[in-house]
Amino acid sequence: MLSPDQDFRFMALNDLMAEIAMDRTLFHGDEPSEVKVLNQVLKLIEDKISEVKNQAVKCLGQLIKVIRENNLTIVVDKLIQFSSGKEEELRDVAGLAFKTVVSELPADGKLAAAVSQKMVPKLLAQLQNSSQPATPPDSIMETLSTLSVLVARFPQQATSAANDPIKVILPLTSHSRAAVRKRAITTLAQYVPYAPPAEFPELMKSTITPSLAASASIEKQQTVSQLVGAVARYAPTRVAPVLGDIIPGLLAAAQREDSDLCEGCLQTLETLTLRCPTEVTPYLPSIMLIAKEMVKYDPNYAADDEDEDEAMGEPDDDDDDDAVDDAYSDDEDTSYKVRRSSAKVILAIINTRPELLTSLYLNVSPVIISRFGDREESVKLELWSTYSHLIKQTGVYGDAPQAKSTEGGKRKRGEGMEVEDTPYTLLKSQVQALSKALLKQLQPKSSAAVLQAGMDLLQSLLVVLPGSLAPQAQSISSITASILGSSSSSTTSSLHATVLSFLSLFFSTHAIAAYKSAIPALTPKMLSASSQRHPRIASEAFRAFSALLIASKPVQAAEWVNKLYDEVVARLRSGDTDAEVRMRAEDVVIELWLNATDIMRTKGGHEWDALLKGGRLEGAVRVVEKVAGDVSMDGAWVGSSTEWIFGVLQRPAKAGKSSAFGCLEVLLQQCVGYTHLTGDTLLTVSPTGRYKSGVPEHIPAEIVPQLIHFLSLNDLVLMTHALSTLNILLRVSPKQTYPLVEKSVLPTVYQLAHSPSVSGTALEALTEFFQDLVAADNDIAGHIVPGLVLALEKSKTGETSPSNVSKCVSAVVRGYHDLAAGIIAEFAKSIKPRSKSTQQHVVLSLLALGEIGKTIDMANQQEIFSNSLALFSAESETVRAAAAFAAGNIAVGSLHTFLNHLVAQMQSDQEKRLLTLHALKEVVTHCPRHQLETVAGALWVPLFAVSSSSEETVRNVAAGCLGQLTTANPTSYLPQLQERLADPSPSVRATVVAAVRYTFADNTQSYDELLSPLIIQFMSLVHDSDLAVRRSTLSTLNAAARNKPHLVRDHLSGLMPLLYKETFQKPELIRIVEMGPWKHRVDDGLEARKTAYETMYTILDTCLAKIDIHEFLSHVITGLRDEANEIKVLCHMMLFRLSQVAPTAVSLRLDDMAADLSVGMKGAPVGKDTVKQDLERTAELQRSTLRAIAALSKISAAGSSSEFDKVVDSVSRPGSQWSSEFHELLRTFPTSIKRSISLTTVAKATTTTPDLLSTLDPTPDRVPLSKSIKSARPVRGRLSDTPLPPRPRKEKRPPRAYEVGGRSSGFTKPVVSATLDKYFLHVHASSNNTLLHLMDAQGNCQPKGQVSAGILKYRHKQRSTFDAGFQASLRMIKRIEEEANKKRVVPVRMFVSEGSVAEDGFEETRVADGGEPQYKPGMEVEVVFNGFGHGKQAFIAAMMSSEGDGVRPLVTRFTDRTHIKIGGERSPKARRL
């Protein structure tokens, strides 16, 4: 370092840094060397060579970590000396050194406190001496900047080391140099949160209030307005109580004739609106008024207000004739800053005050539209962005209660009728003015930024109001064609992609008549875009063509169709085509076949060669499946496609086989003709139509041997597909398929039938297999049941599922009813009192009799029922549970015969009461509604009599039964529940509330009017003195908010305070339990608290528009500090949701939650008592916290939340434990709320869908079992005395073609009917995993329709968690959205007379002339649950979240097919630690 060679000095510093990094004890025991090295490094900061100076600064940052505390004074003194010197370069280096030293210090430890103690007093002393004229302003700014860094990194240490810093810094706010004043204001504001409480009122009295007076100078008011804004950013709680003294002065100052002062006041008002949302509420009308006026502030523009829009919107083409004023130029005009700041104030109100949307539309929106043509581009873009946010907030909060406006809010409709305006109606009324003003600005010579912003605004409008731009279709087509006609470059590629994305949305939301004339001008530009090398432009062009093809059906012969076909084929043949572009090209092939079928038949099939030979496997399968399902193809195509699918199934790789099965099933069911290929030779061609005389004989012979390999438990998904394919073959070709199945398949299926791994969709396919097999050949029916029983008995105990076997037996009986009597008699032998059957066989017999009893009237088999009741006393708990199941379901088939026996036993035998209640629950669950009404009176009183039991299990079962009975006759039983609310017994009150909870699971709305007035009364029990009653009440509120939110929305203002009260930990409910030498802390209020937070999460999803976001967020932040990890996880999920629906409000509180999120990321302390479960729970909490941090980081502006930025840096920096997972989450999370809003608003605009409801399985028809059953004459395989309707066969998938035809009515527009495709979503929530499968109506698993926690990289026990199920559900929801979008958006409302019903069953709605049809995705989904795992509730939570908004309208039914186990063997005692 003493060398005269600059390179040696540089390398010496570099080597010193390396030595310090390797050995932190470098100077231990050698203080002289430490001082010598330190002085030399400080000396090199003055080196003449810049590289050496910079290296010395870096070295000092490392050296400060290893030197002794007493030597810190040397560093501080020397750097202070440098920073106060006259040499400018040395001052800059000293400032950099200060910041380097501070940034390199560890956040924890004594070193930060020591440095602050040494540095802060010196820096403040330097500021006190800065009043001397010789002090350079740059030196003052560097000192203030260093203090800011210190306070930001070490607020507590820097504050404690200072001696009244506010008084030292305050004089600098009056410095003659503006940059010094600004820096001083920021530093002063950073100290305010940590200053004594009395200092800010003193600051208000001495400085702020006098400076805001009308007599104060403009310069003082400008400084104070900036100071108030800075303090509001760093310490909003200090400013909030004194807003009454601040805002009037700011409003008055903003009207003074000074642009800079007005801009500063508006910026401060924006900050106060954001940071003090509650306290600023009384002043919002005044703030809105001043912002509305100032957005028009343009003193240098002299046009009249009436002509303002026209004058500003007309571009001046003659630049040479502009008048030049020597005394003034546009470069000196700063009024645009005022207008831009005003727009930001309006934006702050829009983002934080959804209740003011109506007032904003009435008072502010017209002014913003009038300024769309502002002459300053930055102001124009800010105004457009503001209006875009207004539209998006309308999409989210359009149904929110609106504050009363003083300037109207109602308009007349018809004669004497007043209709209250809503944000939706007001936006719709302003669309014409909005689109006209905006399109005028989108000129060909406009900049790319202007065009991009304009298209984004139009797209936001279409998302919220589909079809609203029809009157402007010609102008839009002209503008988009002009933009696409410009050459594509790196600067315009994003613009072109945006325009194409807009066109896709425009085509799909408007009738073809609106833009048909513009298609010849648009398609050449779109074709040019589709041939671009830029992948995003090409993919968006293909997507736009897909939408155009759908809207143009049937597509007539046109040149653009031929060119599009050629481009698609070229893309599919090319090996270097981007994956996204290839997928969009495949979509175009589908739409061409579906909508331009006649044209495609003339093309020679080149697209199939490109797809099947060189295309993407999954994409090719998808295209073949879609075309085969909806288009009548010739036999040659069917043959080649089927052979190709065979080849896919024979491949060793697993990928693509699931989708290949789905395609094969479609080909078997719905395709025409068949061509059998042997090698390259065509043997037969059958183009005569669908299989009218059965499937050709060779098809089953080829397929069945291939399917045997998939009938294995190694892959349940492929096993399900294989069974479904066999079922199809048994239906369409029973004679050819049956012998093959009996010989080679049936033994394997017997082994599958008793496996406990088979559940959900797989079990449904299995039972359907037996039913179809028996229907194919009745002679085998007598052999199947013994085969099932024998396979069960030969299997190992503990690896069987008698429940599955019993369902298979029931399926055999449903397929051939003549066997019912014999099967019942055989199983009845095993349950007789002196039977020597094994326990396993007894359980199977009981379960089988119960399954059969659901559909067979066993009134004449009283002995079976009596024997089932006798087994309630069996030693084995498994037998007792099966007996309860059997007794309950046998009673379902003959209520009047057996129900009284169950009621009498429940009343008389207390030991068997719980089992009897479970049997009665089977009755009320599976009994048809009309029969349940007749027996409800006999059950009501006895059930209430047992509700006073102290056993919670008994009360819960009784409550479930009472709830079901209430739904059967609500008029009679709801008032009786209401009367019981005042019962002195807490057990009865808890039962009443639980029973009400079950009424919310009913999907009918017939008694909602009766239930709505009673909501508050039932929910008032949240005040109950009994903890169990309060917890049950909270659960009921949660169920109401989830299933019937329309009943609770209007009562939330009174319910939310009660709910918030239950979120706090109550010390009186905490007790200490001594367990030997250990003491265990028990919180009895934890369950109620968890239920309260679960209810908050539900209300956030279903009643967002009715809650105060700011208050709600405060309680969520409080929950982050709760001791229970489950509550923290719920709060993380709510933060994720809030970051999407209220990003502005959440971003302002990021620092408040930073410390709690940081604690959540810390690992569990490992000690001698730590067990594996503790580590797993901690890991789950860490992952949940990480997801919340990742979601919040997307809405955090850089530098706005320093504490939160530290948390993000700790998990994202390279080398961090969570770095890779954090960045993976960022890639998978949505980049904006746009998608969520789109799905929500389209759902609102298209259909009214019932809320998510828990419904039960449809009850099958029942057949009485008479005495002469053995001699009953079979009729089509069932008993002749009471005929059953024929078993419904799975029909072909509804065609996607939609009939369009005229109709005589009061309107001349066509009637468009829509047919929806039916899908089933199976949710299997086991104790180990969550599995989701999306199936079509034929049982085919859709491509990418399988999701599980394991697929999402959850390992081992993590797969069973709520969070894993939630993430898997979100993935499946996204998959359904993709499928819904592919299913096209079809009209579902008819242009016919009001109140009539169309032929297809859809309700018809009168649409005025010029109106647009409403749209809905062409599919519907039925959700089927199975299992008790966390994944079930996780799926419901995901569906009720914003991510489920697009799927929820598609759900038509919820079914729970979980087998309920009653009793069972007692679990081993928990391990005592």
Q: What can you see in these coordinates?
A:
It is built from 66 helices and 17 strands. It is mainly alpha-helical and 1473 residues long. The strands form seven sheets. It has a five-stranded mixed sheet. It has a two-stranded antiparallel sheet with strand order 1-2. The longest helix is centred in the C-terminal third of the chain and has 22 residues, at 1172-1193. The radius of gyration is 37 Å and the shape is globular.
Shape summary: globular
Helix content: 55-70%
Q: Got a strand count?
A: 17
Q: Nearest-angstrom radius of gyration?
A: 37 Å
Quote the beta fraction: 5-15%
Detail the poorly predicted runs: 303-330, 413-417, 671-693, 1231-1315, 1384-1416
Structural class: mainly alpha
Question: How widely separated are the two ends?
Answer: 62 Å
Query: How many DSSP H or I helices?
Result: 66
Largest sheet: 5 strands, mixed
Mean pLDDT score, rounded? 79
Name the descriptors.
5% strand; mainly alpha; single chain; 5-stranded mixed beta sheet; 1473 residues; globular
What layout of secondary structure does this protein have?
Layout: H1 6-22, H2 31-44, H3 50-63, H4 72-83, H5 88-104, H6 110-128, H7 137-153, H8 155-160, H9 165-169, H10 178-191, H11 199-211, H12 218-234, H13 236-239, H14 243-253, H15 259-275, H16 284-294, H17 308-313, H18 335-352, H19 357-370, H20 377-397, E1 410-413, E2 417-420, H21 423-441, H22 448-464, H23 473-485, H24 493-509, H25 512-515, H26 519-530, H27 535-551, H28 559-573, H29 579-595, H30 597-600, H31 606-614, H32 617-630, H33 635-650, H34 657-670, E3 675-678, E4 681-685, H35 698-708, H36 716-732, H37 734-753, H38 761-776, H39 781-794, H40 802-815, H41 820-830, H42 839-853, E5 856-857, H43 862-870, H44 877-893, H45 895-908, H46 913-926, H47 929-946, H48 952-968, H49 970-979, H50 986-999, H51 1008-1011, H52 1015-1019, H53 1027-1043, H54 1045-1048, H55 1052-1061, E6 1070-1075, E7 1078-1083, H56 1086-1102, H57 1109-1119, H58 1125-1141, H59 1143-1147, H60 1150-1160, H61 1172-1193, H62 1202-1212, H63 1219-1228, H64 1234-1246, E8 1263-1264, E9 1300-1301, E10 1311-1312, E11 1317-1325, E12 1330-1336, E13 1341-1348, H65 1362-1382, E14 1385-1387, E15 1415-1417, ...
Parallel strand pairs: 5-8, 11-16, 16-17
Antiparallel strand pairs: 1-2, 3-4, 6-7, 9-10, 11-12, 12-13, 14-15
Helix pairs in contact: 1-3, 2-3, 3-5, 4-5, 4-6, 5-7, 6-7, 7-10, 10-12, 12-15, 14-15, 15-18, 16-18, 18-20, 19-20, 19-21, 20-22, 21-22, 22-24, 23-26, 24-27, 26-27, 26-28, 27-29, 28-29, 28-31, 29-32, 32-34, 33-34, 34-36, 35-36, 35-37, 36-37, 36-38, 37-38, 37-39, 38-40, 39-40, 40-42, 41-42, ...
